[in-house]
Amino acid sequence: MQRRTEENHHRQTNTRPMKKNTSSSAGTIQQIIPHQSRSILSEVEQKAQRILNHNLVLVKHHGKTYCRTVPSKQYYTHQWNWDSATVAMGLVHFHPQAAYDELRALISGQWENGLIAHITYNPDEELYYPQADKWRTQQFWQNGVPTSGITQPPVFAIGVEYVYDHSPDKQAAEAFLEEMLPAIIRFHEHLKTYRDPEDKGLMTIIHSWESGTDNSPRWDSVYAHVDLDKIPQSVKEDVNLHRVDDQIGEVSHRPTRENYYRFMGLIDMYAKWDWDYHKIVARSPFAVKDILFSSIWARANESLARLLKKVGRYEEAALYKEWAKQTKQAIAGTWDAEKKQYTDIDVSQGRKEKIAEPTIATFVPLWAEAVTDTQLPKLIENLTDPKTFWTPYPIPSTAINSPKFEIARYWRGPTWPITNMFIIEGLLRYKDRHPKAEQLAEQLIDSTLEMMIQNDFYEYYDPTHGKGEKFNQKEIKEPTLHFGFADFSWSAAIFISLYERYRKH
Ligand code: GLC
After folding, report:
1. CB count, 10 Å around CB of 287?
2. Which residue range is the domain that position 56 belongs to?
3. Per the domain annotation, does 351 fall within a domain?
4. Cα separation of 262 and 248, whole Å?
5. What are the tens digits of pLDDT across the range 226-271?
């Protein structure tokens, strides 16, 4: 039975005028967002605010109460790292205090070695599998806050900068920043030490859950090396007995059972190695230089550098700017000219193999401004090709012409608002360097908003907008165009953020 301790805390919904964004163009909105949708944008925004209120959970640890937004009460009933950083970007537009609280809660369980884990658990919730004890990380828990042992793309610093920049009360924002800076620095130092031991700029992930794109085809060749026969029977039995995502959610949307054995097999191995990340990175059968994670890392170091400058810490700022620069160059160096994409690199157990699956990850370097002038037109060509990524509801998580494309399965095809937002921001960084970049960003803003206006705030959406049969996806019988779990926090937050900045005025 699921136990709940959350109270229904009501976040006030005051709306205030926001800065007008000069890059939005009314011309585009008329083309993409139909008239009837435009007139209900603010109504939908209020619905998004209600979802964030509804997903707020109060959790007590050692007498302290933390306010966290869970991704979805249908299944994801704890706090997820990059979800929270994104949720804060929505919250700040109608309840800045809630945005501060969200990020405060995110760092409440930061380990002594600087890790901010991918899940911060609510001990009163048992629905999600794996539960906190499966990680065997108790020795690292701080302030009694249970966490997992891996991390997620470090959107945290970017979230802090966004919240700071959009806070109406500058004094409160400054106090918040002072509180967040030590945590960001410890987190970044941790990542640099353990995930870039070569000091070359590309970041190593040790589990596909760290990529945020958990089930992406990018990981297939790596998981093929994770020998099912070597995974202890007890781990498999635990999965067989306790895994519930495929019962609560639709089985055709979720990862396969074999993959779940591998996911949990890695966790079991790392726990046996006492979460020694030097050892894990060197010996794990899953160690990959991830292009999406590295892009966010570079972008996050830019945020950190800017935040430090705001408080007059120029020397430290220069260091993180340097880290960002190093990573950008390294990302550019993974470019595959023939495939018009960036590539992950499998570095497990001494391997050095390029992974060139055509997925959404290849566009995230735009956000880090890592794309060179020669790469840019090719990357945009790839993005705007209707045979690959430019679908009716772009951008699919896997190219629609890939043999691995699956319309509804988790990160193997569907469109996710979170990656759309990264790419919108990325295209806007290139608006003066590519003639189409700004127009594409505008189109993506509209299609992302429209996708949610039409289908509510789900975890992910049908990129073909119901035209799946054209892509050999006949097995999908659902009449809906949205998939995964409902009332999803970051979808709601992204709606608010995009609407407030680009479409409100
Ligand atoms: C899934 C996603 C991951 C996200 C989590 C909570 O595991 O793959 O990126 O953080 O759900 O929304």
Report:
1. 22
2. 26-503
3. yes
4. 21
5. 999 999 999 999 999 999 888 887 787 788 899 999 999 999 999 9
Q: Whose CA is nearest to atom 12 of ligand 1?
A: 71
Which atom of ligand 1 lies at the shortest distance from residue 81's CA? 10
Give the whole-angstrom CA distance, residue 352 versus residue 370: 22
Indicate the helix (H) or strand (E) that contains 36: helix 35-38
Number of domains in the chain: 1
- Ranges of residues in the chain with a pLDDT under 50 are 1-10, 12-30
pLDDT at residue 13, as a whole number: 41
Which protein residue's CA is at the shortest distance from atom 4 of ligand 1?
212
User: What pLDDT sits at residue 252?
Assistant: 77
How far, in Å, from the CA of 319 to the mean position of ligand 1?
A: 31
Per-residue pLDDT tens for 17-49? 333 333 333 333 435 677 667 789 999 999 999
Q: What is the Å distance from ligand 1's center to 6 Cα?
A: 21
**Quick one: tokens of 154?**
């470090």
> What is the 281 CA–ligand 1 centroid distance (Å)?
22
* 6 assigned to some structural domain: no
Query: Does 1 map to a domain?
Result: no
Pocket test for ligand 1, best of 80, 118, 360, 490 (most atoms within 8 A of CB): 80
- Tell me whether residue 170 is exposed, middle or buried, using C-beta atoms within 10 angstroms of its C-beta: 0 to 12, 13 to 18, 19 or more: exposed
Q: How far is the CA of 212 from the centre of ligand 1 (A)?
A: 6
- Both tokens of 44, joined, read 């939908």
Enumerate residues 6+ apart whose C-beta is below 8 A from 355.
218, 221, 222, 288, 343, 344, 345, 346
CA-closest residue to ligand 1 atom 9: 212
**Gap from CA of 213 to ligand 1 centroid (Å):** 7
The domain spanning residue 443 has which CATH number? 1.50.10.10
| Protein residues with CB under 6 Å of any ligand 1 atom | 71, 76, 80, 82-83, 212, 214
In a domain, 8, yes or no: no
Q: Give the whole-angstrom CA distance, residue 454 versus residue 196.
A: 42
